[in-house]
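Review this chain:
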Amino acid sequence: MTWKTGAMSQTHDAYQYPTVLVRGEIKLGQFLKLAGLVEDGAEARIAIQSGDVRVNGEVETRRGHHLAAGDVVEVELPAQAAGAVVAAQDKSRGRRSRAFSA
């Protein structure tokens, strides 16, 4: 996996980020921890409230924002910027679906 480094761009390219598989729904704060974009919940809260997190190119300040398959999450931290793509698994069929935003 490779992470994008540098400042957050105004546009995002989903193919430059790793894809993180999640089962069912996941909130933004939980996803940041799962994807390894932050160390813990406190860091997630600070990053989100500071406006350092974008979902599909838009700043998101709600830690409880629900993510969907294909959402691109970007985080700008003091040292670097990083991101990940949400992928969902359909439990009933055992299939993995990926929808990328470009």
Remarks:
- The domain at 17-92 is CATH 3.10.290.10 (Structural Genomics Hypothetical 15.5 Kd Protein In mrcA-pckA Intergenic Region; Chain A).
- Helices lie at 28-34, 41-49.
- DSSP finds two helices and eight strands in the chain.
- The two ends are 19 Å apart (CA to CA).
